[in-house]
Amino acid sequence: MKISLLNSSVFVLVLTLSFSVSWGALSSILEVTPGSEDFISCLESNSKSFASDSQLIFTPANASFLPVWEVAIQNTRYLKPSTPKPSVIVTPVNETLIQTALYCAKKHDYEIRIRSGGHDYEALSYSADVPFVMIDFTNMRSIDVDVANSTAWVQTGATLGELYYAISQKTNTLFFPGGTCPTVGVGGYMGGGGYGNLLRKYGAAADNAVDVRFVDVNGNILDRKLMGEDLFWAIRGGGSSSFGIVLAWKLRLVLVPPKVTVFQINKTLEEGLTEIFYKYQYVAPTIDRNLLIRAQVLSEYIGNTTMKTIRVLFEGIYQGTSDALLPLLDKKFPELGVTREICEEMASVRSIVVFWGLPSSTPVEILTNRSAITKLNNKVKSDYVRTPIPITGLKKIWNKFMENDESALLMMYPFGGRMNDYSETAIPYPHRAGVLLQVLKSVNFNGQTSDTTPTSLSRLVWMQSLEELLTPYVSKNPREAYSNYNDLDLGVGNANYKEASVWGERYWKRGNFKKLIRIKAKVDPHNFFRHPQSIPVFSSPLSSFK
Ligand SMILES: Cc1cc2nc3c(=O)[nH]c(=O)nc-3n(C[C@H](O)[C@H](O)[C@H](O)COP(=O)(O)OP(=O)(O)OC[C@H]3O[C@@H](n4cnc5c(N)ncnc54)[C@H](O)[C@@H]3O)c2cc1C
Ligand SMILES: *[C@@H]1O[C@H](CO)[C@@H](O)[C@H](O)[C@H]1NC(C)=O
Ligand SMILES: *[C@@H]1O[C@H](CO)[C@@H](O)[C@H](O)[C@H]1NC(C)=O
Ligand SMILES: *[C@@H]1O[C@H](CO)[C@@H](O)[C@H](O)[C@H]1NC(C)=O
Ligand SMILES: *[C@@H]1O[C@H](CO)[C@@H](O)[C@H](O)[C@H]1NC(C)=O
Ligand SMILES: *[C@@H]1O[C@H](CO)[C@@H](O)[C@H](O)[C@H]1NC(C)=O
Ligand SMILES: *[C@@H]1O[C@H](CO)[C@@H](O)[C@H](O)[C@H]1NC(C)=O
Question: Is the residue at 514 inside a domain?
Fold first, then answer.
């Protein structure tokens, strides 16, 4: 209910504020299947190879339209008839069709949505309340690993799992410091900054981008040199889809040992969790950069009883052998109780399988099999912890979790290490020195027919109450949020800086947000590349943002 209300307010905003939506386009908003003949005939008359292009274009009249739209929807919450769909899906194999589609979308007043892996938490890559053309990168996912130069060119349709697998086919001593969900797309991931298991040693993913191939609003193909350092800065964390279409990234690969050490260990309240977690906040962000220990918090029933407990799954990954890890933990964090028996040494690529929750014996080929990776059905919000949460606070959080019906999860990533070496303005991603933990808060809609059943709504209400409870314990002024965990509840106002700052400063902080707005005004002054939380363009003069 809350969600559809939000969408309709976005809808009204678009209707009242947008001058570029024509009457023709407006009336087609109301149609179930918007006509797209204008767009298709534009493609036909502007294409040098329409016979082959037409094989890459889907309208609702094509039987495969719906399957093509649905296949990359990674949050099954949006798999429902009421989710607004594109007028046309374009699945280019190269940039030529992208350039033509861009030209025709502008000419006929369609917006564009760009989909890579389809993980967007607000469905912004494949849904909109206005007529739009979806450019889907499913056919552009080549990966070219250059071991000698420690780089890889990766088209944005590739997933992280495909990237890790491709690297592992050539070497076990190089890797990319990316996230652990195999189906996340390189396109969206890099645009938001990207964090993962190597962040304490090598920083965010976007810190390790060295070049790009990009289509600007005029259809020009740009690389880093041609676009200039400002735009190259903006698309590494400022949300690429506000600025243009990224075709491929050139990534720096980083050195890893042939075997890393992985461990997993549960702790419950009965096993002294509260004290252990309290100490975790001091140790995990300051310990050797080779070690990252993430923590997942949830509540569950004890055995078959009606009594609940809190369980935290601590999962460690160490860039080295267990012989080196064990003395380190003995010295700094003996309370965690990690023993040699629970340590397993494996190649980096296999650690991704384990961190995704699969047995370590699973063939690593699964990383390239999109249909074998379970899709989620959830709503998330993020926070950053900059001062350790006191024991009293932890107890309040545990009690709040006891009220939940086992649909909630907190996922904590410790920062520190290399993240402290980057200034807040190095790239738009601003959550750097001083962050102890990044917190992902999630409620799922498992067992529910939709995200609007009474139970689903009560889970969202619970999440809001957790949000309030956490206020004293998380970052403030602004309360930082991760743009790749985008959340329209944070606000969608964009008429002026004051409105946009409500959500924009949470994602990027003031200095970076203003710089993103200045760059946006230069590279896309008519705000063609937009969505409810894209970098805004204001009518007031730029000088007011200097
Ligand atoms: C299960 C799960 C696990 C996750 N784990 C992590 C994690 O470990 N670390 C982390 O940092 N994040 C993580 N995320 C968040 C993830 O990084 C974002 O959801 C990211 O935006 C997904 O990228 P995508 O390409 O899959 O999504 P999409 O939905 O395809 O795209 C997301 C956004 O990027 C834009 N975009 C996509 N491709 C392009 C392109 N080629 N050019 C311009 N714009 C483009 C889209 O238009 C949209 O605005 C996770 C998300 C999920 C659902
Ligand atoms: C680009 O893709 C089109 C189909 O959209 C195809 O006809 C053309 O041959 C391709 N060009 C190159 C250089 O591969
Ligand atoms: C969709 O239908 C149109 C019209 O029949 C056809 O030209 C086009 O090739 C179809 N697209 C695909 C991908 O089959
Ligand atoms: C490294 O990259 C350069 C420039 O792209 C290329 O010319 C060179 O061949 C590469 N080196 C190796 C050893 O592949
Ligand atoms: C942690 O606890 C859960 C639930 O009891 C269990 O399924 C899982 O195997 C445990 N993990 C480890 C590493 O002990
Ligand atoms: C829980 O109940 C099931 C079925 O009644 C029983 O088989 C199982 O042994 C019980 N487990 C525990 C931990 O008591
Ligand atoms: C991918 O996974 C699916 C589902 O588990 C399976 O049916 C399919 O055979 C797998 N494909 C490949 C190429 O392994």
Answer: yes
